[in-house]
Amino acid sequence: MTDENVRKSWQLAPDQVTINNPLWHTGIEKLSETVASRLGYKGVPMQCKLYKMLVYGEGGHFVKHQDTEKEDGMVATLVVQLPSLHEGGDLVVYRNGELKHRHDFGKKEGTTEYLPHYAVHYADAEHALETVTEGYRLVLVYSVCLPSNMRALEGNPDKSMTKELASAFCCMGPEDQLFSLLLAHEYTEKSITGLGFGALKGIYHVRVEALIEANKLVGVDKKLQMFFADLKHDASFYDVGGEWEEDAHKESITWYALSGKKLVAASGAAFELLEP
Hints:
Keywords: Iron, Metal-binding, Oxidoreductase. GO terms for molecular function: metal ion binding; oxidoreductase activity. Residues 44-146 form the Fe2OG dioxygenase domain. This protein is an alpha+beta fold. Helix content is 18%, strand content 38%. It has 4 helices and 17 strands. It has helices spanning 22-38, 159-170, 189-195, 203-215; strands spanning 7-8, 10-12, 47-56, 61-65, 74-81, 86-88, 91-95, 98-103, 117-122, 127-129, 132-135, 137-145, 179-181, 227-240, 243-257, 262-266, 272-274. A hairpin with a 2-residue loop joins β7 and β8. α2 crosses α4 (203-215). The radius of gyration is 23 Å and the shape is globular.
């Protein structure tokens, strides 16, 4: 059962969907190459796994939400809208609470009822489907996943940048003991422990990969020790005459190796935050 105030649609599981067009699967494989490149995974054999078929009739919608990780190694969602005559039903994607992208799946060009259209967004991106006001919207939803046998990405970072980073490492002094790179996306413990730094999305896995390659060029005494750190801050408040006063707060850090191995939970660490 679903709350129709949150989501209103009909859906079919993958085993209830049969695609007879022999070119469809070939087309999805080619599309996965484009998707991988656009998401920052150029050359990585991403896998598009059918999650469900959805049908939105008049009044159909899905309020703002984030996708859950439906498959191991899932990094994004691919929505393929099949030719279907309808009005409304735009996909809107948010960043930091603000609407950043809108996709109308060909309505402005008048091709909605004649051609398939697609959109891709990271799994953790907040997004919503606006209300279908007329007709029916038919879509196939795929989970875009890293290959199951890939725990880390094989890369070819820019050599000049790698050398510059290595030089910067050599210039670091004792005062540069701890610094961090903030990640813009959300990650679950399952994705980190399962894929290690291969789970990083977009530009962030490129940056970490460059740091790893630069680390190989410096001496043992200058090598960085790199980890994932999951920082949590919990606070409770109570009402005093209409004003909120802090009752208690707790901070904790869980550390992971770049391989994804969970190391230890700790409290109290000072970070110098970097965000290029």
